[in-house]
Task: structure prediction
Amino acid sequence: MQLIDLQAQYQLIQSEVEAGIHAVLEHGRYVNGPEIETLEARLAAYAGVDHCVALASGTDALLVAMMALDIGLGDEVITTPFTFIATGEMIGLLGATPVFVDIDPATYNIDAAQIEAAITERTQAILPVSLFGQMADMHAINAIGERHGIPVIEDAAQSFGATFDGQRSCGASRLAATSFFPAKPLGCYGDGGAAFTTDAALAEKMRQLRNHGQTAPYYHPMLGINGRLDTIQAAILLAKLDVFDDEVARRARVAARYDEALSDHVTTPTLDARATSVYAQYTIQVDDREAVRGRLNEAGIPSAVYYPVPLNRQPPLYSDATLINSDAAAERVLSIPMHPYLDNADQDRVIAALKTAVEKKMP
Result:
């Protein structure tokens, strides 16, 4: 059994993926091929925005979005400590300071009610993360940003396809960034990502930034990065987009079965009543996590911990802020197998093994 079964998906769409790759091999435009523009148009339409900029990774998408806002040395960006390192890493690499706000203990997303108190005259952006497939409270966060004239960037690395009160992830803020890392709900066969905006000027600037800051051949009025998405990856994503909605629905059904079977045994995910989730992970909370993981492993059930060390406890981003909910979650979260092709029999194996693992008494 696998935590995420990419082979099952490939077997379903093998002919479409291989046809897309073959088309790229035939035309030979491995960088900036026509599939890039097609993909950007489809992704923008899906998210409900005017502009999508394909990038080499979700990390690059975060970086380019902040560079487009001229965030740099001495600036502050408000974000969550309970996320992958890339969120804070890109803030730090630009010379800015991440200001961490604690999470809502139910959804694991940034607690919007605590954001306003963290704003200072140096705050240049608010960067919520839509974790585990569920969007943050973008209504509340956007309202705070509007009151203070601060742009909001959604880190949607795990939530493309999710909704909040009818708005799609990547289409609910001035800027957004997502990831197409293979394990994501919409993933390619390598690194990939995209940035989204409704602002034409920001979109054009991000296109220039991803190509070494170039505005015309060999003319570079700004410093940028080599952040272009490979054409072959775009072709793969186009094939996967055709089955994406069905896969999102399948993920929801898998999550519903887990919820029903496990809610009396572990802390199951909490879904905001206004939200839908793409369940990038199915993350529970357990006591004595390492013992539970050991028992699951003995039963042949894979698991993972996202994330055992919050960003404010990572040496390059260390903060002495008291973030109780983030620290508590880091001690207890555990992700179990979740993907669209997890059949009932395998899911029942996971459920039975997990019930035994959490109920077994320590020696």
Remarks:
- The chain has two domains: 6-238, 244-359.
- The longest strand covers residues 51-55.
- The longest helix spans residues 231-262.
- The domain at 6-238 is CATH 3.40.640.10 (Aspartate Aminotransferase; domain 2).
